From TrEMBL:
Name of the protein in its database record: DUF5071 domain-containing protein
Domain DUF5071: 8-125
Organism whose genome encodes this protein: Paenibacillus mucilaginosus (strain KNP414)
InterPro entries: ARM-type_fold, Cthe_2751_sf, DUF5071
Pfam families, per the entry: DUF5071
Superkingdom classification of source: Bacteria
Length: 131
């Protein structure tokens, strides 16, 4: 993994690195997914949306890492990942998260409620017509 760090964005304005990432082969991107997901902690960062679009090219590889986010205590990160990744996945991949999204939508933790993660979960469920 250390040999791949050179490809990671250096700061929130590093669109050059994002452009290079788009040209990398699947195996390299797969190794970088946990680091790339970190950029989705704040979708106000200029490169965040581009990274989300890049990650959506690898739905099967991203799913295990999205589970890590959904099980974390970082409610804002959950919110952004629901809005920009889970809600944009192909339906077959979305279904993996359906039960957890129903839990968040209907029985959110206090933190999920405060940060409106439950609302994001409802929107995703509604989009896929499963609520």
């Amino acid at each position: 993994m250390d040999h791949l760090r050179e490809y990671l964005p250096k700061d929130k304005h590093d669109f050059e690195s994002v452009a290079v990432l788009k040209g990398l082969e699947r195996e390299k991107i797969t190794e970088l997914i946990p680091n790339l997901l970190e950029w989705l902690r704040d979708m106000n960062w200029p490169i965040a949306a581009e990274i989300a679009r890049l990650l959506l090219r690898y739905p099967e590889e991203v799913i295990p890492h999205l589970w890590m986010v959904l099980r974390s205590g970082d409610e804002i990160w959950k919110y952004w990942c629901l809005e920009y990744l889970v809600g944009e996945l192909p339906r077959i991949h979305f279904l993996v998260f359906k039960e957890e999204l129903e839990r968040i939508a209907n029985q959110p933790t206090r933190g999920e409620e405060l940060e409106e993660v439950h609302s994001a979960a409802r929107r995703v469920l509604e989009f896929f017509g499963t609520n």
